Amino acid sequence: MENKTEQKDNLVYFENAKTKKHREYIQLQDHCTLCNTALEVRYLADAGSSTVREEAFCSCCDVRTRNRLHLVN
Ligand SMILES: [Zn+2]
Predict the structure, then answer these.
(1) C-alpha to C-alpha distance for 31 and 61, rounded to whole angstroms
(2) Pairwise CA distance, residues 27 & 5, whole Å
(3) Which of 45, 61, 62, 68 could make a disulfide contact with 54, Cβ separation 3.0–4.6 Å?
(4) 17 lies in which domain range?
């Protein structure tokens, strides 16, 4: 089953994806928990407040799964 997943999505990971735990975490972060579609991630930089907004959403379910504000130093 593990090999099946690897063959299905032919992704190149920049993160440490060597262990099963890492891959499960990445899968959880990058895919919709409802329908397993790959999430669309947007980064909106605001120079005025020195922040970057990170948004992840599923185009299939129309659900936003992540909305974070990062302070840029
Ligand atoms: Zn979804």
Answers:
(1) 12
(2) 10
(3) 68
(4) 2-71
Domain count, the chain: 1
Distance 56 CA to ligand 1 centre (A): 11
Return the exposure string of 35-68: e unless at least 16 CB atoms fall within 10 Å of the residue's CB, then b.
Answer: eeeebeeeeeeeeeeeeeeebbbbeeeeeebeee
pTM: 0.61
Longest dimension (CA), the chain: 48
Ligand 1 geometric centre to CA of 50 (Å): 31
Q: What are the structure tokens assigned to 36, written together?
A: 């397993």
**How many A from CA of 72 to the centre of ligand 1?**
30
Task: Judge whether 29 and 21 are in contact, CB under 8 Å.
Answer: no
| DSSP, res 31 | B
